[in-house]
Design brief:
4-stranded mixed beta sheet, 43% helix, 4 strands, extended, 6 helices, 209 residues, 14% strand, alpha+beta
Amino acid sequence: MDSLIIVLLVFATGFVVGRRTFKTKKNHVITTDNRPEKTPPKKYYRPPEPVKIYRDSRWEGKNELFWGMIEEGLHIEGKKYVCSFTENEYLKNLITWFDKNCFINCQVSLGQLMIFPDQPGFSDEERKRFFSIYNSMTMDYVLVSKKTYQIVCVIELDDISHEKEERIERDKKLNELMSVAKIPLLHVPVSEMHVQPDIWGCRKAIKSS
């Protein structure tokens, strides 16, 4: 009899404990707080572009540089003459020969003589860099028609400086640019500065090409 009572007590205890466990599991709700965190997708890392730093300069940007040096009281001297002595002597000859039909301009930037329009084959950066190369070139003389105001001819007076390696390379670039743009160009050696150049023949040859 005692053993039967013990068996019944064990069974009753197990039933109660099991029911409580089942109820606890049934009422348990999985929330997002209990779920394992998902690993965020990897993002492509692009390192920041390095800031361009100029050595031995207190200013970085162009505007900052310009106004900073102005405020610091920089010293600039104006040139007395636009052209050298030899160039002025040749200018006198050009005036004698062509003043009736042409305006004669001296030391003109090549950037004033050419237009580089937008082109799909070149990026804006490439165009700007290319422009900076030829814009710094200056032409000795630009003859402009007094009747049509069109460019008649560009003349470069070649002195001994044109025999230097860097000037030779510069003249190669200049010749190619003028050819592509179809602008008449004459190179006049200093030894021939007293010989009247054939600007009209040069212009005609370019226009007919």
